[in-house]
Write a structure and sequence with these properties.
By secondary structure, this protein is an alpha+beta fold. It is built from six helices and 15 strands. The radius of gyration is 21 Å and the shape is globular.
Length: 390
């Protein structure tokens, strides 16, 4: 859940999180070495608690210089723990030197695997090239999780290709084998195949993820998400944003790969997410309890109150129609899925009915994909079914 009004949590306690400063000759030690491929630098946070009265007093962290980064989040040791409160950051623009206003981080990154793994974290926030950071946390009556640290993500350079690399008819699986596509059953309503920027097109460093692939049964539903990152990005920045999310999911959260199966930017460009082949039923980490037999499609941006660009809506329609059409699933239909986690809206083992195009909030107690995008899902279903010829 995104907390917008800091003073609204007056009854509780405030934790002052002190970011160890980066000074000449004494830079904070990164969790792993930085390289030309970018990376994640971790900065430990310490806390000093004091009671907060009804006036909602708050404590803030003085601004600090840091290594360069373009995405930021906060993580903690226990992946099953939650941070009950608000997390806010300010960042310094590396070009202008100007500091941003306080920016909210979603206090729970709810797009995750069915089994807790790695570290817990906030959702990451894209801030563009930055070199300074301030952090403040307001706890709403519960202890903060142990091992809090800031995660500064440098996306690294773009792909070493000219123009976007998109899928072709034979580029269907991890080995690009046309036989995989021919093995699909003939269907009456396949949906037209959209252009998809494959992983090499957005510059995925394949050495980061775990080797091999994990597959499930046939895809029966698509879950629509938003990445809960900024909306004011240039579409040319989308590959860098995806590289940053990829690094955050793998290096910070400890997942095997990026969580989403596909991503769609505000200009409607569709990107391959988790590796394993765009036509294959690749197990993602996007909807707790319902990652099997589904595909996660994430709109890059935050759509609680901002309207969804038409091109982005169109991209979601296209990828959902095609992905479901591969096995003749009606994009305007319904299906039954079995919960794989008590952490979802439904106890593990519960059979649950879903629309074949559903929002993340249908399976988990979250605001994702935001009211503006969620309210468009009936139209997205209708348009996707039309593309399937239904």
């Amino acid at each position: 859940m995104r907390f917008t009004h800091f003073a609204a949590l007056a009854a509780g306690s405030t934790a002052l999180l002190i970011l160890q400063p980066v000074t000449a000759g004494a830079a904070a030690a990164p969790r792993e070495s930085r390289s030309v491929a970018g990376g994640v630098t971790t900065l430990p946070l310490t806390d000093s608690r004091r009671s907060v009265g009804a006036d909602g007093a708050e404590r803030t962290l003085p601004q600090r210089s840091t290594v360069s980064f373009s995405m930021v989040g906060v993580s903690w040791d226990d992946p099953a723990a939650t941070l009950d409160g608000t997390v806010q950051v300010r960042t310094r623009d590396a070009t202008t030197g100007h500091w941003s206003d306080w920016l909210d981080l979603d206090s729970a990154d709810e797009d995750r695997p069915d089994e807790p793994t790695g570290r817990g974290s906030t959702a990451p926030l894209w801030v563009g090239p930055s070199n300074g950071l301030a952090v403040r946390v307001h706890a709403s009556g519960h202890p903060l999780p142990a091992g809090l640290r800031a995660e500064l993500v440098d996306p690294g350079p773009g792909p070493a290709v000219t123009g976007p690399a998109t899928t072709a008819p034979g580029d269907t699986g991890p080995a690009g084998s046309a036989s995989a596509e021919r093995a699909l059953p003939r269907v009456e309503h396949p949906g037209p195949r959209p252009g998809i920027v494959i992983r090499s097109g957005w510059g995925a460093d394949e050495s980061l993820r775990e080797p091999g692939y994990v597959y499930t049964g046939a895809v029966k539903a698509v879950f629509v998400h938003h990445t809960d990152t900024a909306n004011n990005y240039a579409c040319s920045d989308a590959p860098a944003i995806i590289r940053s999310i990829y690094q955050y999911h793998v290096k910070t959260n400890g997942w095997r790969d990026i969580g989403y199966n596909f991503l769609v930017d505000r200009c409607g460009t569709i990107y391959e997410g988790r590796a394993g082949g765009v036509i294959q039923p690749v197990l993602g980490a996007h909807t707790l309890g319902f990652n099997s037999n589904t595909s996660g499609v994430a709109a890059i941006g935050t759509y609680g109150s901002d309207s969804v660009p038409q091109a982005q809506q169109d991209g979601i329609v296209k990828i959902a129609a095609w992905k479901l059409g591969l096995t003749d699933v009606d994009a305007a239909g319904s299906t039954t899925l079995v919960s794989a986690s008590d952490g979802s809206r439904y106890k593990k083992g519960t059979s649950v009915g879903f629309n074949t195009i559903s929002g993340h909030r249908d399976g988990f107690a979250t605001e994702c994909p935001g009211d503006q995008l969620y309210n468009l899902l009936p139209d997205i279903r209708s348009r996707a079914a039309h593309l399937q010829g239904r």
